[in-house]
Amino acid sequence: MENEENILGNEKIGKLIKKFSIPCIISLLVNSLYNILDQIFIGWGVGYLGNGATNVVFPLTMICLAFALMFGDGASAYLSLKLGEKKKEEAAKGVGNGITLSICISILLCVITLVFLPQLLNLFGCTDTLRDYALSYGGIIAIGLPFMMIGTTLNSIIRADGNPKYAMTSMVAGAILNVILDPVFIFVFNMGVEGAAIATVISQIVTFIINILYIKKFKSIILNKDKFKLKGNVARKVSTLGISSFITQMSIVVVIAVENNLLGKYGGQTKFGSEIPITVLGIVMKINQILNSIIIGIASGAQPILGYNYGAGKYDRVKQTLKIVLTSSVIISTIAFILFQTIPDKLISIFGSGDENYMEFACLAFRTYLMLCICNGIQIPSGIFFQAIGKSVKSAILSLSRQILFLIPAMVIFSSLFGINGVLYAGPFADGLAFSIASILLILEIKNLGKARIKSQAINDNTNIHSKLNKHIIITVSREYGSGGRYVGKLIADKLGIKLYDKEFIQKLAEETGLSEEYIENNEQKRDVLASLNNGYYVGLSNSDELFLKESELIKEVANKESCVIIGRCADFILKDRENVIKVFIYSDMEDKIKRATEIYGFDKEKAKKEITRIDKLRANHYKHYTENEWKNPSNYDICINSDTLGVEKSADLICKMVEETDHID
Predict the structure, then answer these.
(1) Which pLDDT tens digit goes with each residue over 294-308?
(2) Fewer CB in 10 Å around end: N or C, the chain?
(3) What range does the domain containing 333 cover?
């Protein structure tokens, strides 16, 4: 890890972006082209009604993909975290549970789809004209859903195991086979949409088999039957870690469902009919996905570069990386804009021919719906940038704003005002608003980059300390903000003649990770509710995860070396398997905490209450995320003390007496 950190902090930015972004772009493009090539062959072999049917079935595939990525990306994150904690058995359980979840849910979704396919197609905007095609195509695709889901879940896990080439090979093999089989089944055997569906399922089975064979080849873990047994806490954790991927995919499902229904309703009132708009806009969105795949690939490849240099306080490198990413993305989106505006008829012709109305609506859709696609070159990288630097609220706003907050309401409102054209107007409206918000947040962040940093408090002088204890004992002190817990810890250390470890970890972490002390001060032991949305497109550990793992190593080293008092940092959990650890939790009433905060930190009462609530919530989220336990649960600790009942001095005395009694027990 140290070598990689040195590369991220010192290698030329352009070279780094090429190294990390190109594999991301290829992987995302292969995924996008998989569906597009299907549509091309169906368009030429069946006609635009065949493509319309696949667009109606597409949301079903996306729902399954959402679950597959949730379990796959979640298991990948769990694997990385547990390997970082040197817990290979736990890591293997996470992977096994992720695969088992994918198997169970995929079979359930397969059965639901087969039984309720007509009803589901109605939900996704299927018309009477498209129904026979959609039922034929969807019925076969449903059979392949378990293979697709399990293969996709394994693909994510294989990448996290350090073998992205194998994962890419299995994906590319499936895509190539699909390209070969599509024309065979559609044109040679004249099987129409059923042939396209069979080709897709066979390709998914091949990818599934290649990935299944990898289970015995894992480099970092060993999987046996026991690892695949579902454990409630592990399954929940895996699902939570993958929730970002699930939300991203499901937002697309909601957009397509609303869009298809509106296109069918208002298109039926025009000369275009219902089927042409549903078919055309589905194709337009998939072509636009090629543009987005390239932009996402560039930005997500740069994510570890941005994250590391931001944490290391190397803001010039952050700005330089961001400049290259934005410039590249805007160039790509500008080229796409020119193509969409000048040759939309040529682009739609790739997917087969159609009548005059078909071509007219296609040109209208490209030129209107994608009028502001240039904005994607700013909006998408901005969201990934905020993911990289751990700004989860801003990241969540940018991730959800375009699809959920702007596009869907705009489609509903504009279509009621302008009919079928209103659905198309919603595209540039959403793009423009999302771009505006992204630009404002990005400009403000760049202006404030490196400013208003918190200064680390002075390191305690722990020299010339002589322990009064006979045995090797560790006292961990967890505390509410404003409870005086840190001072209680200091008094305990002084009274027992042992070292206090708190801010010392910040200095040591800065030395070992290359991250700045200011960044560590601002980010350790703090995790907000939306942080899970920051997992995004980058498979690997975030700076926060790296901090926790490095801190865990330091805590274990200190605990092995000497008796001491350790403040916070989930030390009670990290050392839970050791003997002679006394776990303390210090709390206090809100009024007492407010009083202490106003006296010590100089806050006014209202600000003190808000800050106490905010910090305690961040600490609780942090503890829950890494320990899977509740921070304030008394069962986590040996003793819980209200510091204002006895006062900090007597609280420290009580704990010292408890330690001394333990110290004399053989």
Answers:
(1) 998 899 888 888 888
(2) C
(3) 1-11+268-452
